[in-house]
Design brief:
The complex is a heterodimer. By secondary structure, chain A is α/β, with parallel strands linked by helices. Chain A contains 10 helices and 8 strands. Chain A has a single domain, classed as Rossmann fold (3-Layer(aba) Sandwich). Chain A is globular. Chain A starts with 8 loop residues before the first strand and ends with a helix. By secondary structure, chain B is an alpha+beta fold. The longest helix of chain B is centred in the C-terminal third of the chain and has 9 residues. The relative contact order of chain B is 0.20. The chains are: A alpha/beta, B alpha+beta.
Chain lengths: 282, 122
């Protein structure tokens, strides 16, 4: 029987975050300029599988994705069983900077989607010197809750089923079924309360509307790419952010939704490759 | 057209199987037209058009006719492609005991998408 292996290699990293030991799963592929990838709320680093498997990217980039604590193959910290998980702007910022430092990444390019796109805006504002360029996917400054978040974490509603069903409409109409359902499967696999805990950052704590215009793209180039069919972070919301930041480059991606790198990698790469090329030449 | 929901849902074995723990009635309002839809173990047993005097249902989904028309079009435009997209734009009101709706959200999304023009994606 003939089998094939992907070029992705995964390892578990032990490091201290927020004063507690953590076990973090990190995947990478390729060589060259580091490209650090941040997944969406309630999902994990598998969303970047296509980037790590595409030689057009890995020939010149070391693509790295970690599963946030509580997500994917990363563990929650010891003692989690008696806590409520809640992601905050401060912790998310610390996590990204600490993990980038632990991996000895020298000014990586940062790419983050949804909550990852939001923290990308925070990092562009507060730590531009740490990154060569920042790419925000589905990045808006704020999203108002549009359903009762308590349904995401209660014993009489299956957390995986409801998480997958809530985000299913955020996938664009042209996504191949295989990638659409792979994307939703990641949501269905999330631990109890984790998606909800991430949305605390996305819908409450991480509001950056009042400060986003202060981002200085001279210190770190900023690219925003958003899918046309995303009703969580709409194209209008991304355009509003882009128009308030001098030098920010923005692309609205036709036919794509909230998970461009995972739901429809072929189409997404037609938008991402020119951005990476421009960063490489910059 | 709404009446075709019964056959369209019941002919999808996977959808019926996913709804096997779902027995409920809900009210679907398309503009001024109301329909009481009864489900037994994932199968739609009746779609009763109104008007009603005192309809009993677990919850109701209410939206203007033009919004449902877009939702049921062959390729719905952004903002009209999903029940939650309509809710976010405040044009679909979900009211009542929403535990039933949310605990079977995939079922209700896929069932109502069955009314899309033939050949449309769910």
């Amino acid at each position: 029987m003939s089998v094939t292996f992907e070029p992705i290699v995964g390892r578990y990293m032990h490091l201290e975050l927020f004063g507690r030991p953590h076990r973090i799963y990190v995947e990478q592929a390729g060589e060259g300029a580091p490209l650090l990838c941040l997944h969406t709320a309630g999902s994990d680093g598998r969303q970047y599988r296509a980037l790590m498997n595409d030689a057009r990217i890995t020939a010149q980039h070391r693509v790295i994705a970690f599963d946030m604590p509580w997500h994917g193959k990363s563990s929650p910290p010891a003692g989690w069983h008696d806590e409520e998980y809640q992601l905050t702007s401060a912790r998310y910022t610390t996590m990204v900077l600490e993990i980038a430092a632990a991996l000895e990444l020298d000014k990586p390019i940062l790419i983050g989607c949804s909550i990852g796109g939001r923290i990308a805006l925070h990092l562009a504002l507060e730590h531009p010197e740490r990154f060569r360029a920042i790419i925000g996917l589905q990045a808006g400054a704020h999203v108002d809750p549009y359903y009762d978040l308590n349904f995401l974490h209660r014993p009489d509603v299956h957390g995986g089923e409801v998480a997958g069903a809530i985000v299913s409409g955020l996938v664009g109409p042209d996504a191949p079924d295989k990638e659409r359902w792979e994307t939703l499967w990641h949501y269905m696999q999330g631990g109890p309360g984790v998606f909800k805990g991430d949305l605390y950052f996305y819908k409450l704590d991480g509001d950056i509307r009042g400060r986003v215009a202060q981002i200085d793209t001279e210190r770190c180039p900023l690219f925003l790419l958003s899918g046309e069919y995303d009703y969580s972070c709409t194209p209008e919301e991304t355009l509003a952010v882009a128009n308030s930041i001098r030098g920010c480059e923005v692309t609205i991606m036709k036919g794509l939704g909230h998970f461009p790198m995972s739901e429809n990698p072929e189409l997404f790469l037609t938008h991402l490759l020119p951005v990476l090329d421009k960063i490489g030449r910059g | 057209m709404i009446e075709t929901l019964q056959a369209r849902v019941n002919n999808d074995a996977g959808l019926v199987r996913r709804g096997r723990y779902l027995t409920t009635s809900f009210l679907l309002e398309v503009g001024q037209s109301a329909y009481l839809i009864s489900i037994y173990q994932g199968r739609i047993v009746s779609v009763t058009p109104g008007p009603f005097v005192m309809p009993s249902s677990a919850f109701a989904l209410r939206a203007p006719e033009e919004e449902w028309s877009k939702f049921w079009s062959h390729r719905p435009p952004p903002g009209s492609n999903d029940l939650l997209a309509l809710i976010k734009r405040r044009v679909l009101r979900a009211e009542g005991d929403l535990w039933v709706f949310m605990s079977h959200l995939r079922y209700f999304k896929e069932a109502l998408a069955k009314l899309r023009a033939e050949g449309a994606a769910a």
